[in-house]
Amino acid sequence: MTAILARAVMVVAEACLGDDRRDWSLAMRGELDAAIDDGKPLTFAAGCLIGALREMPKHEEGRFALTSHAVALGLLPLAALLMVGTAAGFPFLPTGHAGIAGWFAGAREHQPLLTPWNRGFAPALAVLVWGIVTGHVLMPWFVLERNWDRVATLARVNSAATVTLFLFTGVLFLDMAFLLLPAAVLTIELVAIWQLHRWQAHIFAGAPPGTPAA
Amino acid sequence: MAAIRRPSKQMLRLLGALSVTPNEWRHGYDIIKETGLLSGTLYPLLMRMTDQGLVEAEWREPAQPGRPARHAYRLTAQGLALARATAGERTSSGFKEVPV
Fold first, then answer.
1. What tens digit of pLDDT does each residue of A8-66 get?
2. Exposure of A191 by Cβ count < 10 A (0-12 exposed, 13-18 middle, 19+ buried)?
3. A26–B43: do the CB atoms touch at under 8 Å?
4. CA A25 to CA A20: how far, in whole Å?
5. Does residue A213 lie in a domain region?
6. Suppose B49 and one of A138, B24, B43, B54 were both cysteines; which one would form an S-S bond, judging by CB atoms 3.0 to 4.6 Å apart?
7. Is A214 within the bounds of a domain?
8. Domain locations along chain B
9. Is the domain B9-88 a CATH 3.30.365.10 member?
């Protein structure tokens, strides 16, 4: 059992070292049997993993992997912000809140965002807002998978949904200030994933055809 | 070839272990057992020392069938020169070279 766990840890360590240090990954793996014979496979494998993690910032592929995870983790709070905002009545749900602007202003008397005249649009707007939130929650996952086709599709869907929200807001004569948050989230997300995509293209520019973009 | 900084305590220990029998190729796990260094310290050190031209590495066929090939290491001439130059530091740091 310990040996199986150690082998699993070694796989992670090898992935952390990347292609630049492939020889060293194999070298560490080659010693694992000796560690198993010695009865200390997990200590050896854990050490290799720590060493590999420490090496990550020293090579570009490792820096890219670390940055991808940082961006993905950074996108999650943005999605969470939208979720909390939506749950608190942002921006169109008829819960009687004054929205983000009222929240910032500390308004005591909350004004409903939707009037009896346009309240019928609430379900459609709610679905749209939750669709945007879902898109932002899925984005970090696709970024970590480096599935750029899915990232691009999701970015288009998120952009289209945000533009639709913008149009609805205009048509219903609602306060456009409420769009600042989803627009800011979308902008940050698009800039971050575009920069990551360009960086990955740069790293693997010289790779032979068929090389997996690890 | 990367620049060589002042050797760390761990590097001195590795230099000491490898310089006892400089012509002998040594496997990573044997070095771990001999020096007491952890794998997380030894491998980054070996990578850096190989980049600096202090250590050379080569693949060795496995002793038992079905096992993977193993990396073996020994000091280069430059590494051996550094080991000799830092012999005094190793002694003062309390590291004793144990002949194998």
1. 999 999 888 877 788 899 999 999 999 998 888 999 999 999 999 988 888 888 888 88
2. exposed
3. no
4. 10
5. no
6. B54
7. no
8. 9-88
9. no
